[in-house]
Design goal:
Elements: H1 8-23, H2 29-34, E1 40-47, E2 51-52, H3 56-66, E3 71-74, E4 81-82, E5 87-94, H4 95-125, E6 132-134, H5 144-153, E7 167-169, H6 171-177, H7 180-190, E8 197-201, H8 204-213, E9 218-222, H9 226-236, E10 241-245, H10 253-257, E11 263-265, H11 268-271, E12 278-281
Parallel strand pairs: 6-11, 7-8, 8-9, 9-10, 10-11
Antiparallel strand pairs: 1-5, 1-12, 2-4, 3-5
Helix pairs in contact: 1-3, 1-4, 3-4, 4-5, 7-8, 8-9
Length: 282
């Protein structure tokens, strides 16, 4: 699996905001009330089900931001597989600090492990094909960078991180601009030569117009059945990168991959994943 990371400096504002939200205006009053000062403990972050791990970097950062003196011992890396009952991380030091950072660390780790695990399931269904699984911009507001990182940990690939990454002409752009030919002619007239261009189509006649007009690098084949997708891939014949989207699930992705598309994008990776059960045990 992919063990990608990003610098803690980039993640810190997001994690600090989550801690501020959880600690509120007065901090962890429960811990402050019932835990005597100076009590130390060793805690273990344990997996309660089989999964593909993500969020360990973020969880460790959460604990360090609460208390830089805590000793963090990661036992797996983001992108590793884990089994039920496996210890993923050990945290040693102030019991009060560990308890104050626990929920934020688990919220991130459980959700991101859910993204990575779902991604890995889709990737497994594409074995033997050239198709790559990729995410979309259908991410939780404010969490895009770590959700897309979790997709990498699951063996997938990233689509655009923002609207400024590439030109992606969707159906509403086509409708508002006056048609397929109009938007592609506008791209050829105005776009930077450094910018990749992708255009969405949902019918073969639109695809024919894209191929005839030129100006695109990638074609997004939206909500097509596997039979129509295979026909579209044959029409493209290697002239464009092909991407399939729409109704992509663990049950449908193998048939989509078998059509010969280059990429399969799924918004479900970051909006319909199930949080994996992780726990912090003293």
């Amino acid at each position: 699996m992919n063990h990608a990371t990003v610098p803690d400096l980039i993640l810190e504002p997001m994690v600090r905001a989550a801690l501020t939200e959880d600690l509120g205006t007065c901090g962890d009053i429960t811990t402050r009330t019932v835990i005597p000062a100076g009590v130390t403990y060793a805690a273990r972050l344990n997996a309660r089900e089989d999964a593909v791990v993500s969020g360990m970097q973020v969880a460790a950062l959460a604990f360090r931001l609460v208390d830089p003196t805590l000793k963090i011992n990661p036992l797996v890396a983001d992108g590793d597989r884990c089994t039920k009952g496996q210890t993923l991380m050990e945290i040693t030091g102030s019991a009060a600090s560990i308890l104050s950072g626990e929920r934020v660390a688990l919220n991130f780790a459980g959700r991101l492990t859910g993204v990575a695990t779902l991604t890995a399931k889709l990737v497994a269904q594409t074995a033997g094909t050239k198709a790559r699984i990729t995410c979309t911009r259908k991410t939780t507001p404010g969490l895009r960078i770590v959700e897309k990182l979790a997709v990498l940990h699951g063996g997938g690939f990233n689509h655009r991180h923002s609207l400024s990454d590439a030109i992606l002409i969707k159906d509403n752009h086509i409708a508002a601009a006056g048609g397929v030919r109009a938007v592609l002619e506008a791209v050829k007239a105005r776009a930077s030569h450094m910018m990749k261009v992708e255009i969405e189509v949902d019918r073969l006649d639109q695809l024919a117009e894209v191929l005839d007009t030129g100006g695109a690098d990638v074609v997004l084949l939206d909500n097509m059945t596997p039979d129509i997708l295979a026909e579209a891939v044959a029409m493209v014949d290697g002239r464009l990168v092909t991407e399939a989207s729409g109704n992509v699930t663990v049950d449908t992705v193998a048939a989509i991959a078998a059509t010969g598309v280059d990429y399969i994008s799924s918004g479900a990776l970051t909006h319909s994943y199930r949080t994996v059960d992780l726990g912090l045990d003293f």
